[in-house]
Amino acid sequence: MSKRSALLPLSILILASMILAMAGCQPTAAPTSVPPTSAPVESEPETEAEPETEAQPETEPEEEAEPEEEAEPEAEAEPEGKFWSEPLELTSDYQGELVLWDWGFEARNNWVQKYIDEWQADHPGVTIRYEIMPESDVGSKLSTAVVAGTGPDFSVLNLEWRTEFQRNGLLEPLPAEFFPEEWRNLLYSTPYARTDDGNIYVTSVGAMGAVMYWDKSIFADAGLTEEDVPETWDELIDLAQELTVWNDDGTLDRAGFGINGMPVWMWFDLVAQKGGHFYDEEVDQALWTETASVEAAQLVKDLYMTYEVTSPDVPWWGELFCNGKAAMGYAYSWFPGWANSNCPDKVVDLGIAPLPTFDNAPAQGLQLEEDFIGVFSYVDPEKKALIWDFLHFLLLEDDERIIELALDFGVPPDRMDLADDPRIMENDLLRVGAEVAPYSVRPGPLPMFGDHHAFLTTAFEEMLLQDASPEQALSSAVDQANLDLEASGKTYISTEYQYTPPE
Amino acid sequence: MNFFRARRRQQLIFAACVIVPMLASYALFLVWPVGWAFSISLSDWNLFQNAGNFVGLRNYMRAFRDPIFRISLTNTFYYAILSVPLGLGLAILLGVLIQGAGRFRSLFRVLYFMPVLTSEIATGVLWRWLYQPEYGLFNSILSAINLPRLGWLYSPELAMPSVVAYATWKGIGFTVIIIMAGLDGIDETYYEAARVDGANLWNLFWHITLPLLRPTLTFVLVTGVIGSLQVFGPVYVMTQGPGGPLNRTRTMVLHQYQTAFLSFQWPYGTAIAFISFAIIMALTLAQLRLLRRRWEY
Amino acid sequence: MKRTKLLRWGLWIVLGLGSMAMVLPFYWMVLTSVKSKSEIVRIPPSFLPESLTLSNYVEAWERLQFPLLLRNSAFLATTMTALILLSSALVGYVFAKVDFPGREPIFILVLSSMMIPFNVVMIPLFLLIVRLDWADSYWGIIVPGIFSSFGIFLMRQVMGTIPEDLLDAARIDGASEFSIFWRVALPLSTSPIAALGILTFMGQWDSFLWPLIVLTRADLFTLPVGLALFNNRFYTEYGPLLAGATISVVPILILFFSAQRLFMESVALQGMKL
């Protein structure tokens, strides 16, 4: 049988099936679930409630500017200010099951489960099925389930998918009755979480600003103390150079400042520090070749190549720290937890400090809120009422719970009024996080969607492995990003950004 | 004559009883979803909306204009060209060697299968350490014998060969098992007869083993090409996702996965998948045609 | 004589060295699972543990429900392997030995299923499974997986080598095609079938993505899905993960060793020379 006669029936077979498929099943396969058709109906009442609260934004810049002083007026107003901690009246007599998905983080899982049990005791007949999934392939599992209509009623979300769901109307905005404006004004993340339709879609429990880590024992050996921890980049460069140790054969024995694995993230912080932005307001263009961005990239590159305080060949900060091979380093808020679990005997040497800034920098760095639970809009309204009730119970009714989570989970609470709680002050990570939170910003969307993060990673590789100049490397990344923005036809949600100069 | 016709009918009924359920299963679980996915690649549906609009071949044109897709195409072919001959040659060699190991045959079979058994995460971590430029074993050995250290996974030139080395090591046991099963089917008498005629080892191999192994080799070659053009696991594990230094280890499936699931650009990702499908199909048909020989004797 | 001896020695050396390289990671995996967590991050890593500990195993055992996961994986893998072996042998035999109209294009169709990356098919397939009400149950995993192109292709190649004369002899004796398959073809293919069995079992045992998508209820989870809980977004917990991975390798090893006896030369064709 010749190839031709094999191909003909085969192609007919394939064509027939495709025609069949296209005729029989439009992407409207989604409607097997309750879905987005109910969304417009649901969100209307909500959005009408919002415009009244829009009057608030003017007062916010003032609140941002004086976080220290704010702690006192709040303390006085406490009895009245916490009116939202009263349990609400139940508005639904739904009986049955609510489904919550989460991604394995033991501390958070235990905390949520504990309060699910408590809440269920008060609400007989209603159970919350708390499903914990593996975190790998989250995008596949959650997206597939939502498309197929087997998704959860509410779920822990993170920055990356939250935006996608939000854009497609899959998330329910937080209702003002359950999450009053007064409460929202106490969150660091509110200005950035608010989208351009004025709503907030995900509850927030933690706010992490930019911090850096340092090895106390290495400092002690060099005769340095906490006072010597650098506060500006120039100071850091000097100190790191002093503490870096190179071997004779050209390998790095001890890094002054470990960045590996995170240069792009650090660059985000630097750009934010300098008051730069990543995209223009309509999110049509990437702004990675603006002066601020290029200067920030230059600093990263210089740390490797000019000041030589680290090398691309060594492992990331965490492994270096555990082996005493780095004096200072950059990593995120989960790091102390990781260190506790992987080299518990060395954790005692872990020092935490705010990330150094440039002289006269407008901000401390990025504000990354610890995204928490979002509610899907396709859920029945009576179920939603119960879910809001539960979230209100979890997050607003007792501040002790928030602090408990912060202590276990290692992320400072996203609440300005809790910043000076003694337990927060005692815990290094939380204290530093709370210190920097007011000065941390979110200059619009971050390059975390599409392949943009990958474009930037390649750009930094070009800078570090091939000695490309930041302008060159970033501009080819910009070209790719602009192509992607254009081709994917997306309009991203942009949020506001404000800056507060550190003292 | 009646006998043969009855036989033939009986044969065909048997064939139908076997093939028809299989076809039904493929139609339902393969053809339908693939057709559906194909229609998505011709639209701009983004998973969460109710419906998408038909946009023709726009996604496919975009793929051809996308510089990273072109890079991923090159990378994928590079991977295949390196890994298929290496894997096949090595597997044949090992298969023959183990076959000659007498009573230790079973032991070696298991030993060489170990990497396949060990979890990908464990092997990935180990090999990433082996390749670590400063502390890794390979560079330590190199510098011990006064050779220059290499960049391995961090070097744009060496990244792909490093991944190929890992993938070959990880998968060779799999292929060896199949080849050994094929070798098992070769009758000893052939070898005996040839030895009586004075053939040496090489003759035995070339004139008896290889030809009789042809059906197995065809299988290994075809599945090897198909598999290598769709490689995902080893690359993902070795180079953490996006695809290595300067995208040098970003293969087609990696690019497709990233686009479809991490960037939520499903139609575009699916278009990439179909382009790669077309390429693989063309290559496979060509292979089958070239390798077609009657193996009955 | 001497040359053969030299070659023999060469054989042993090559095989020996090679197998050390092959076993190394397995040793390393087991080693890491019994190291204390702080020793795991040590650079450069130690090849002999300073202290042995079973804490990783304890932790893995406590955080996951191992007996349940093992049982689930065993059930699924065994069922799927049995089904796939049977279906592949049958279909492979028909492709190889029975000429029917459309044989060639249908075979190409079977092959083509290997040419599409699974994640493309995943979402539409899942939508289908949901419509059939098989979501969150083992039906959604078993039924779509009954036929394996890989297995069919292999069996077709293998069955193709069976001499036609043998089959004709049986046909002349009046046996039905199925009993020819069962009594002649199958016994001649034990070695490849055993090979396919091991490979299929291992593939099913390690199957992760599709069970992850289909299953939501934790009491249905299989081993790989359960173990993935140790793979967090930012960092991987190697200790318990590798402990779990070691536990999950044991059944396959046992299976492998017990299947060794099937890897013999097929029942000799001697005496069948016609």
Structure write-up:
- Chain A has helices at 3-24, 39-53, 59-65, 67-76, 78-81, 106-122, 138-148, 159-167, 181-184, 190-193, 216-221, 233-243, 263-273, 291-305, 317-322, 335-342, 381-395, 399-409, 422-426, 428-436, 452-465, 470-488, and strands at residues 96-103, 126-133, 154-156, 202-208, 211-215, 245-246, 252-258, 326-329, 350-354, 365-366, 368-375, 440-441.
- Chain A is of the alpha/beta class and 503 residues long.
- In chain A, helix 21 (452-465) packs antiparallel against helix 22 (470-488).
- The N and C termini of chain A lie far apart (83 Å).
- Chain B has a domain at 66-123 and 161-291: MetI-like (MetI-like fold, Orthogonal Bundle), CATH 1.10.3720.
- Chain B contains 13 helices and no strands.
- In chain B, helix 3 (67-99) runs parallel beside helix 7 (159-184), helix 5 packs across helix 11 (233-239) and helix 10 runs antiparallel to helix 13.
- The longest helix of chain B is centred in the N-terminal third of the chain and has 40 residues, at 2-41.
- Chain B is flat.
- Chain C is mainly α.
- Chain C has a single domain (64-273), classed as MetI-like (MetI-like fold, Orthogonal Bundle).
- Chain C has helices at residues 2-33, 37-40, 55-63, 66-97, 103-112, 118-131, 139-142, 149-160, 164-172, 177-188, 190-205, 209-214, 223-227, 238-259.
- Chains in contact: A-B, A-C, B-C.
Mean pLDDT across every amino acid position of chain A = 77
In quaternary terms, these chains amount to heterotrimer
Task: Name the structural class of chain A.
Answer: alpha/beta
Globular, elongated, flat, extended or rod-shaped: what is the shape of chain B?
flat
DSSP strand tally of chain B: 0
Q: How many β-strand runs of chain A? A: 12
Uncertain stretches of chain A: 1-8, 20-80
- CATH C-level label of the domain at 66-123 and 161-291 in chain B: Mainly Alpha
At the fourth level of CATH, the homologous superfamily of the domain at 66-123 and 161-291 in chain B is MetI-like
What is the H/E string of chain B?
HHHHHHHHHHHHH
Strand order of the largest sheet of chain A: 2-1-3-11-4
CATH fold annotation of the domain at 66-123 and 161-291 in chain B: MetI-like fold
Quick overview:
The complex is a heterotrimer of chains A (503), B (297) and C (274). With 503 residues, chain A is an alpha/beta fold.
